[in-house]
């Protein structure tokens, strides 16, 4: 007897392995998946400019990185004792203007290198709702608690999103023709926009993505993280206390559905070894000085060394 409807997922023709170089961009769910990649020691870079929710802002940052368009004083503002940039997350904001610009441009250069070297680009879109700065007449990635009166709120149309996704793919392919794209829609509900408005937002993202993926099957794929949480895990026990974000059980489940279909089966045994080591490293002994614990540490160190001989990039 089945008590859930399982979302079908086709196995990737370009699976991720331990030689892959992954760049993950987008919403907070991209961070959840990025943490999984890091835990299992894949070569992954996640959100160098912080969490970004909408397609247009992601496209803008990709364009900057690919064309190496440096940030200047015209791109930043001072508010609440910090320098901010409307294109990036507030976690990068800084009290010193020169250091802030230096940091932004250093990240820009690193992102250019990461995109150029990547084998897989994973982009998670969160919302179609955007805020447009009235003075600059530009869509922002983050309002940085600037008064709302300075922005107009609007929803991106399917056509606009589709064009933005295509531009993002084209920009990346100018510097990297061999990378593979995995797109997904964040399962996090943006209820602050409204219940109906959140569904409109997700629907526009999904429609636009499928229009693009259908035309780019060889290089693009759609992973149904939103559909898995909405359908397979259709129960509030899979949500965090805010009833909006997936809890750890849901994140773990969606990750399993991902690695079953998008990560090379040849690496599954290595992933189990890495997981075993990670659990051992998290172990807290009753007596750290006991002979048994010293032997445990010695065996653990041997396991780590053996894995690092095969995969030099592994760091525990």
TrEMBL record:
It comes from the Bacteria. Residues 21-258 form the GSCFA domain. This is GSCFA domain-containing protein. It comes from Flavobacterium sangjuense.
């Amino acid at each position: 007897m089945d008590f859930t409807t399982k979302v079908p997922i086709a196995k990737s023709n370009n699976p991720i392995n331990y030689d892959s170089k992954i760049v993950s961009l987008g919403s907070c769910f991209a961070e959840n998946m990025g943490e999984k990649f890091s835990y299992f020691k894949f070569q992954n870079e996640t959100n160098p400019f912080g969490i970004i929710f909408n397609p247009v802002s992601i496209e803008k940052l990709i364009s900057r990185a690919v064309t190496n368009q440096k940030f200047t004083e015209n791109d930043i503002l001072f508010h609440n004792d910090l320098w901010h940039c409307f294109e990036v997350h507030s976690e990068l904001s800084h009290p010193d203007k020169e250091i802030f610009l230096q940091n932004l441009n250093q990240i820009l250069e690193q992102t250019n290198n990461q995109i150029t070297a990547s084998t897989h680009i994973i982009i998670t879109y969160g919302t179609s709702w955007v805020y447009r700065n009235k003075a600059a007449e530009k869509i922002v990635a983050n309002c940085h608690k600037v008064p709302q009166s300075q922005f107009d709120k609007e929803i991106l149309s399917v056509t606009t999103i589709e064009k933005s996704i295509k531009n993002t793919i084209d920009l990346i392919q100018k510097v990297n023709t061999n990378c593979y794209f995995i797109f997904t829609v964040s399962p996090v509900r943006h209820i602050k926009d409204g219940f109906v408005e959140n569904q409109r937002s997700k629907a526009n993202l999904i429609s636009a993505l499928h229009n693009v993926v259908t035309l780019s099957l060889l290089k693009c794929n759609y992973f149904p993280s939103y559909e898995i949480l909405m359908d397979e895990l259709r129960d509030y026990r899979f949500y965090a206390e805010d009833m909006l974000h997936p809890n750890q059980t849901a994140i773990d489940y969606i990750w399993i559905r991902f690695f079953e279909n998008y990560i090379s089966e040849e690496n599954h045994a290595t992933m189990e070894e890495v997981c075993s080591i990670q659990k051992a490293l998290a172990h807290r002994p009753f007596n750290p000085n006991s002979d048994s614990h010293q032997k445990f540490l010695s065996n653990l160190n041997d396991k780590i060394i053996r894995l690092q001989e095969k995969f030099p990039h592994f760091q525990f």
